[in-house]
Design goal:
Number of domains of chain A: 1
CATH class of one domain in chain B: Mainly Alpha
Largest sheet of chain B: 2 strands, antiparallel
Helix content of chain B: 40-55%
Strand order of the largest sheet of chain A: 1-2
Structural class of chain B: alpha+beta
Number of helices of chain B: 3
Radius of gyration of chain B: 17 Å
Number of strands of chain B: 2
Helix content of chain A: 55-70%
Strand content of chain A: under 5%
Order of helices and strands of chain A: HHEEHHHHH
Shape of chain A: elongated
Strand order of the largest sheet of chain B: 1-2
Distance between the termini of chain B: 37 Å
Distance between the termini of chain A: 40 Å
Number of strands of chain A: 2
CATH architecture of one domain in chain B: Orthogonal Bundle
Shape of chain B: globular
Oligomer: heterodimer
Chain lengths: 196, 94
Amino acid sequence: MKKIIFNPFEQFSERPLILFGIAATILLSMSGSFFNARFDGVLDLHFSTPTFFINTLTDNVINVVILSLAFFTLGKIRNPKTRFIDVFTASLISRIPYYFLPFFNWNNIVMVESEKLLQQFQTTAPGAVPQFETSQLLILLGFTVVTFLFLAWFIYLLYKGYKVATNAKGGVEIVLFIVVLISAELFSKIIFYLLN
Amino acid sequence: MNPKLPASCPSCESQLSVTELSCPECRTKVSGTYALPMLLQIPEEEQQFILDFFLSSGSLKEMASQMGKSYPTVRNKLDDIIEKIKNLQLKQSL
């Protein structure tokens, strides 16, 4: 079970992983439209209204394509035997945990509380500390913790998939992986900026 | 239980060599110093992997399905063994 959750790439061949990944991407993209979340970057999640299924699905397709191309390029440089299909599978499957985050914006709770927080900062006099409600802090802190956990799961899965696809070993590969992940994030932000 | 053939010295970890061979039928013994063949110098699990690879006609896909592993995982294992054997060859040629 642990292997399925944290490293399915070692055990399962590309066909079932791709089928599962595509089905999960399509189904869970709906969560974005139900809970008003946009995945506008490889590592991004923002709440806004209104959000449509086609928007979240397009976001996720763009993110998977950017991740696949970025890590395939790095993989091919580091190990010429790297296959695109394996990197694509890693990109597709690793993002699945991220698709569960919109569920935490049930009834727009996170969006409402974060907008309230922004307003509190804007209306408070410079130098003064805004008056926060305990429930507001608990909601935002809880969502931050959950986001970090799911982000860590996503990156861990991506690294494991990349490792299996390229036979990467050692510290240099981890550094290169992080550099490419940040570059993919920056590139995706430019793409989303141009598209919107 | 089949005892494992040790490839390195348990005391100093140097490469072991064969110094005696004997016939189980007539008990004739041959003494000398013979280097262990290359494939016997790698762990038993890796020897089995090479045998399985040979028996599946070199098909990594077939091996992957037999082992219940993904294709890139099996290919990585093969690449690691190739790398290990290349290093052993290099060490022997020095």
